[in-house]
Amino acid sequence: MHNFILKELKNTDIKKEIENIGFEKSYIEEASKKYQYKNIKIFNLTNPQIHILKQTALSSGSDCATHRDVLISNIEKSDCILTGSITQLLTIASKLEHQQFGMQTLAHEIRKLCCAAPKPNRPKIMGILNLTPNSFSDGGLYNDFESAKNHLIEMIEDGADIIDIGAESTKPYSKEVPSDEQIKKIVPILKFIEENYPSREFEISIDTRSAKVAEECIKYNVDYINDVSGLTHDNKMTEVIKNSGSKVIIQHSKGTPENMQDNPHYENLMDEIFINLKEKTDFAISNGIKFENIIIDPGIGFGKTREDNFEIIRRIKEFYSMGYPMLLGISRKSLLNLQESSNEEKDIFTLALNTVAIANNVDILRVHNVKLHKKFIDTLLDISVDNY
């Protein structure tokens, strides 16, 4: 009897695996699509749309899960889950292009999801500069200009790709800080950067919910506005960002810092965050902000339980469906369950969790300890280069 040896391939580069068995190199790119599977959740389809999609999927050798009452037309709308290899999904998209009920648009979205460009394997490191007396982690350490300036220089020398500067704590139960007070603290740092780093290689982000603060800081050529409210706190923020052409980080938050941790609850955590971010990004684009200037952030710790936060990290790739770069900020937060520990210990656990983000190709990691993360990522890249 032949002794068969079987090994399931998991979390591997399927193109490399196909090449390693001696497959025809000129066809590897196309062939690999047959071995890459996607499960796509599609929201709020009408009954005719679901029937068309279901039959198209079955005719293409895949399937589409729907609400049980769809089969007897006893429901007007339903979510569904379409599954298949990339090859099958592209076949489905081609067939849908000839259907009615808006299915051509769905075909375009399926094709876009299947043909998305691969994400970079090196995340940008965003260093945090808190100019506040009450930040949850380092409140008061950099509350004066000299200490803030020294910490800024340290993060630059440690290799930060982005410096995120904020003068308003948004930790749970914190109060809003007046715009003029934020400006008074942030602008001297921006002037220092302008004078001492005229051809800087790092980028600058301003962590604020205030359109007035954003507008003033944009005068100093900042690259990002990091709005934890997702453009909902200040109705002038969208206009300011559109006119400036700067990038914007749109975050999900359930409530405001004053109330976001008052027993947050979700019926379906990932769907609700996804839809909320989709609505916010659609609003931004409809108001003149360019698609390529948007970064999304699921908002770890902003109206979530500890279990919610870990679920987000575990399923972070689901947000890539929107096509935007992703920022993740877990540094020293309460999900680590280390409230009484030193920042050094918190940084070690932060790095451990961020390895999941790195493995899942998150684009930007917002961290307190730039040096630790930079060294770790450099080591990972060295290992990757050595192996290939």
What's the layout of helices and strands?
Blueprint: H1 14-20, H2 28-32, E1 37-46, H3 47-59, E2 63-66, E3 77-85, H4 86-96, H5 103-114, E4 124-130, H6 145-157, E5 162-166, H7 179-196, E6 203-207, H8 211-218, E7 224-227, H9 237-244, E8 247-251, H10 269-286, E9 294-297, H11 306-314, E10 327-328, H12 343-359, E11 364-367, H13 370-387
Parallel strand pairs: 4-5, 4-11, 5-6, 6-7, 7-8, 8-9, 10-11
Antiparallel strand pairs: 1-3, 2-3
Helix pairs in contact: 3-4, 4-5, 7-8, 8-9, 12-13
Report what the structure shows.
The structure is a single chain. The protein has 388 residues and is of the alpha/beta class. It has two domains: 17-114, Ribosomal Protein S8, Chain: A, domain 1 (2-Layer Sandwich), CATH 3.30.1370; 124-387, Alpha-Beta Barrel (TIM Barrel), CATH 3.20.20.20. It is 40% helix and 15% strand. An eight-stranded parallel β-sheet has the order 9-8-7-6-5-4-11-10. β5 (162-166), α7 (179-196) and β6 form a beta-alpha-beta unit. The longest helix has 18 residues, at 179-196. The chain is globular, with a radius of gyration of 23 Å. The two termini are 37 Å apart.
